Amino acid sequence: MKRALVLLGLLAAPAAAQQVNDYPTEARVEYAVACMATNGESADALQRCSCAIDAIAGVLPYQDYVEAETVLRMRQTTGDRSGMFRGGGMMEAMVADLRRAEAEAEILCF
Q1: How many domains are contained in the chain?
Q2: What domain of life does the UniProt record list for this protein's source (predicted)?
């Protein structure tokens, strides 16, 4: 029985690791480049910015990250369409989750 549970746990481990590491390389690089533009283009900034996106990925699933980033980007546009991204509890909750993940990354990496 114990061996069966251990085997089951080992089989589930890759799936759990995949969920934590579900950010595509392109998204990680995009974040790091934008972060470095803000924090200086140095080796130290690269290390800190890479750490930050890894920390964010550790607490926020990629789909949630994409949704929150979309809301933030749409809020920067003008016109009627951007208004629907400015209000609403669901939009605020998405952005709040991203902000919490960013705050944790700031503490851990900077």
Answers
A1: 1
A2: Bacteria
